[in-house]
Amino acid sequence: MPKADSRHNEVLSECLDELGWSPKALARKLNRVFGAGTVAQSAPYYWRDSAGVPRSPLPAMTAYVLSQELGRQVSVEHLWQGKVLDAPLLLAADANLERTWTVKGLDQIVEDWVLGGLVDRRRFLAISGAGLLAAISHYLNGTAGRGTFTPRITDDESPDPLVAQVEQNLPLLQVLDDANGGARHLPYVGAQFRAVGLLLHEGGLSENATVRLIRAFAEIGQLAGWMAFDSADHGLAQRYFVTALRAAHQVNDRQLCAHILADMSFQAASRRHPSDTVTLGEAARRASVGGTASVQASVLSRLAHGYAAAGRTTDFERTSGLARELIETRTGNEIEPRWMYFLTPNHLECQTGYSMINLGRSAFGEGNRSTGRGLVRRGEALLGTGAHMVSKGDPSQRRALFEGAWLALGYSTSGELERSCEIARTAVARLETVRSPRSTELLQQLAVELRRRQRSPHVKTFLPELEEGLRIYAGTGPGRADTVGA
């Protein structure tokens, strides 16, 4: 082991060499896993070359990332030569979730959320592979059995006004995400989740009111999970999703269970875990059987996105086609879940579009330019019909930012730099009101690519605007990630 006063962290250096990473690559990985702005790109050079020690919780975050990438445990003590202790508030996303799939088990999990409250200082680390699947394995393999309560949609003869108020508030919470992105209002939605959890934990409600509250709790948990995912807080998102899945299971709401599993699949695709995204997506498809055409189409579209992320082009084409067929032939006579408001034929087209661009960019990276060009152009055509040009007053601002960032990446890939810059300029303007690190990561990726193409007059003019917009976004406004440097 290196001497304690060494001016070079040999352990960190060896880990980076084994991965073929520069210190800047480590910083980028930390920012991707824990959110933009987590660490300055220059900080890991100081850690490696001058034996610098970052402040908590970065030592544990770094050990976690290196352990995940190397496939073996890298302890905090070993990595930093005993100069810092492990961070007790840094926990795996499934910590304390290993309860029975019963009402009692759900109540124990709800109690943890309630006691955490707004001052919960725990940071949850995303899990993957066997760890992620273990957290929901009893649901996936059927050993969880049926939930305790019979599904009920209608109110009883004496509806509880408090329960009705919770239900009526759900669409308004969804609007917050659509208009402003996940990072801006996640603390508020999380507080609503805990408030409903407190009602459930206190008990004393009729069975009908309990069923309705559990379903509302699951819906808010799904929304909070999605918003945490949009905020790039992946561990917290998984924790919300798993809790919401357990709640939906207790009222035997298979459609909501399918929706949550599909969200988890989509998240795994964005985290570049292709095996997880396919496993979760296929589980969502099985859970959606018997659901409305819209629910099945939504789940299939997420599975298709997962196939695209895994490079399974044939499966992607087949599954996206099935989703499109379901949404185009639906009768309109089915009673849709209240959370199914967002799905339209255009939404599916756009999701197919950025999935195609993702596939095409991968093909370009593998040297298959002809296939890549065809996929990117098809994706651009589909995505071009979407929300990327809606006005600032439109309620779909987060979607507009995300789709605009993807479309700009598509045109950059196909060499249409003027069009790429034009679309990205509109997307950057949305950063004034939308806090969506998931979307901003795409713009950061675009900035990296445009820096290599500054001979283009369009890039030369626009790139400073893009970099300034990203700089302001990272440094100001609600929901930003605090920078924890060396």
Automatic annotation (TrEMBL):
Protein name: Carph-isopro domain-containing protein
Organism phylogeny: Bacteria, Bacillati, Actinomycetota, Actinomycetes, Kitasatosporales
Organism whose genome encodes this protein: Streptomyces sp. R41
Taxonomy, superkingdom: Bacteria
InterPro entries in UniProt: LeuA_carph_isopro_dom (IPR059216)
